[in-house]
Design a protein that fits this description.
alpha+beta, six-stranded antiparallel beta barrel, 13 helices, 30 strands
Amino acid sequence: MKSIDKKTIIIAAATLVVGLLAGWFLFGGNKSDSHDDHEHVKTEINGETVWTCSMHPQIRQSEPGDCPICGMDLIPLEDEQNADIDPNAISMSPTAMLLANVSTSLVGKMNPVKLVRLNGKVQADERLVYSQSTHLPGRIEKLTVNFTGEFVRKGQIIAYIYSPELVTAQEELFEAQKIAESQPQLFKSAKEKLKNWKLSEKQIEQIIEKGTPQEQFPILADVSGYVTQKKVSLGDYVRKGETVYEIADLSRVWILFDVYESDIPWIKKGDMVSFTVASLPGEVFKGNISFLDPVIDPKTRVAKARIESFNSNQKLKPEMFVSGTVEAKLPGNSKNIVVPKTAVMWTGKRSVVYVKSANSKGVSFLLREVTLGPALGDSYVVEEGLQEGEEIAVNGTFSIDAAAQLAGKPSMMSPEGGQVMTGHNHGGMNTEKTESKEENEVKPKALSSMPLSLNNQAKEALQPLYNTYLNWKVSLANDNFADAQKNAVGMKSALEKVDMGLFKDEAHMVWMDFQGSLGKNLEHVHHFSDIEQLRKAFQSVSVMMIEMTNTFTPLGKTIYVQHCPMADNNKGADWLSLEKEIRNPYFGSSMLTCGEVTKEIK
């Protein structure tokens, strides 16, 4: 019985060994073939596969694991030369596009329509404003209209006047009446003298019937309307023809809108304007522009556009604030290429977009420089650089640009290519930092399109930087050179005191980039000799402060992004403010309220 069991065990063991060997030949031997069929071609350095993060392509490691920035699983680095149609394009996997919130849209043509926003006031129609004067010299004995705003009707008695000259003229009339039969011409002349003082035939007959001089004579209203100015008081002496009241007929009023210099090409006579009044919520008024001022105000740099509106119900009152909109069309009937503003990255000298291309290897984006036409609210007209039917990125463009920078390919800040590094090694592989050719014009390199969280210590460290920046803005708006320079130097000092060690992970890399760019723009502020130099530096600094605020959101309060369309030679410029009220730092008192709030950062 024991020998049979031993024989059975030997046979079973032999069968197991044969099975294992067969399995190795069938499956193990084809392992390399299966690997070769994978759609990605792995990049190898010194025979080892390089692993990277789909969201942070700067990460390079020799073994798999987790991304040290976001914790995602690392993936094999693909051979970009095979994946991209163009060696300058940057490839992105579907996962990376989803996480970076990248979306695209086809480029199309349309008839550009710009929604121009106008602000203005209600004013009395100048043609219906009258000066009520007295036709008699003398002393004001009685006023029947005693305050501004009172309504008077034509022919109404508005005052009584005592005139010594009129008393004398009446006595002459009585004397002429006595010899009227022998000297009729003298009697007629005496009556004409009274008529010259605007006394009616009926009044003269009443004086003759009474037989005694009338000492007080009434002043009658020449027109109906509202008293807008009362220019005399009881007991005042007035000369013949002197104005005693200003009277306005408000049955028809003017709406005078301010048209900024940059918007004048869009506005023309006859355009329909829809406008609202703050004190009449829910009501929308409409009117056509009947007059466009041919002269620009040299102080405010605006022209006036006028609408005439009937006002029989007296809803519109002079000095009311109104807000209007005009759907203005670009001159000419040809269609133009229009793209969303979110698709365009602007460096001050260059405007670029990322054009999408796709092949069997995947999706890639290629930088394309474009020439912008007029801004249309949330979009731009593109004059050159794009063709109808091309597909471009309209969201997540900063993420694409950041990946291009880190891969050493042409990007917004480095049009010739060259890898950008902050000086901090996150991925274990050494890269060299290259500077943009435009060394004299330092601008921010946005490395993230999504907000990054900061710890409380890092947020506190940034507060002096924001305080000095906001004080700098106030000084420029007040045209105070000394204070503006003091705050600019203070901002430079506050920047130098920020401890970069407080910024962790990806925030550390992004902060170092902002810190370097801000430092170069603030480097020479203490040498500036006039306020315009400080305003130019403030403009560059504001671009970075806005991007930094969007990236870190370090403030515990709402801050407003404000825009002046006329700054920087009508190219427009932005700044940050804690108040909604516009106080323009680029023009100061000459155009203190020029601008609008374009964004609220909570």
